[in-house]
Design a protein that fits this description.
This protein is α/β, with parallel strands linked by helices. Helix 3 links the parallel strand 5 and strand 6. The radius of gyration is 17 Å and the shape is globular.
């Protein structure tokens, strides 16, 4: 594991594996760098992979007060430590942070976003009451129940994906990080997406969307596709928000095909 120091002095840890052009992986809520294990071997054959632990997860540090801005700075710190053009791949909340980081980076050659849950009017779940109940579960030490409530009622993942996540080796680490969903969901709902801020973002962007995903996730990706100058949606048929677990070959194929396309332009 290697470490960079973020803007506020927080250590951000990442694992570097594989060989080739750099690919930085940014996981979503409650995960850590092991979230990518089902698809990592295929990527290691094509890329030098930098799989980071977001702050408050794994071996990375944290800060007393939480704002999304610090997460964005963390990603920028990792990417800027790599002295060559980078492909950045973010999932879920990590994709939101990656989208923001893309505005600050001059070394991105490509961007992959798997269902960043940016707020979309008319598709927002009423999560405040559920978050209060999740917080109460956490206070009672019932972190697994808290995590399941988040995944089912806020992230709206289907049962087949929940079963896949629960059977994965990193499920205990997800349970341990369950308390972080409260701060991230509040930061997500406070986020204001302004299309005008992204009108000059010309980085080729792949938007991965599950064919059976929650309405918010589909609407958010459609909004981004309408906003970004150089983007395209790839539908992961029969999947929802966690295809890395339930259909890894679909994610691998979509990303490698996109990488071939981007590099053919060079």
């Amino acid at each position: 594991m290697e470490t960079v120091e973020s803007t506020d002095g927080t250590p951000i840890v990442f694992e570097r594996t594989g060989d080739g052009p750099p690919l930085v992986l940014v996981h979503g809520s409650t995960a850590d760098h092991t979230r990518w294990d089902p698809i990592l071997p295929a990527f290691e054959e094509r890329f030098t992979v930098y799989a980071l632990d977001r702050r408050g997860r794994g071996a990375s540090g944290d800060s007393p007060e939480y704002v999304m801005e610090r997460e964005v700075e963390d990603i920028v710190a990792v990417v800027e430590a790599i002295d060559e053009p980078v492909t950045l791949f973010g999932h879920s909340y990590g994709a939101m942070c990656s989208l923001e980081a893309a505005l600050r980076l001059s070394t991105l050659c490509a961007l992959v976003l798997y269902e960043p849950p940016i707020p979309v009017v008319g598709f927002e779940p009423d999560s405040e009451g559920t978050l209060a109940e999740i917080a109460a579960l956490h206070e009672r030490g019932e972190d697994e129940d808290a995590l399941v409530r988040f995944l089912r009622e806020i992230a709206e993942i289907p049962l087949f994906e929940l079963d896949a996540l629960r059977s994965a080796p990193n499920w205990p680490a997800r349970v341990e990080a369950a308390h972080t969903v409260i701060r991230e969901e509040r930061a997500r709902t406070e986020y204001e997406f302004d299309p005008a801020r992204f009108e000059d973002l010309t980085t080729p962007t792949l938007l991965l969307v599950g064919g059976e995903t929650a309405p918010l996730h589909a609407a958010a990706s459609s909004t981004l596709d309408e906003t970004l100058e150089d983007s395209r949606i790839v539908l992961l048929e029969g999947q929802a928000h966690a295809a890395m677990n339930t259909a890894p070959e679909l994610v691998i194929d979509a990303v490698l095909t996109f990488d071939d396309e981007v590099r053919s332009r060079e």
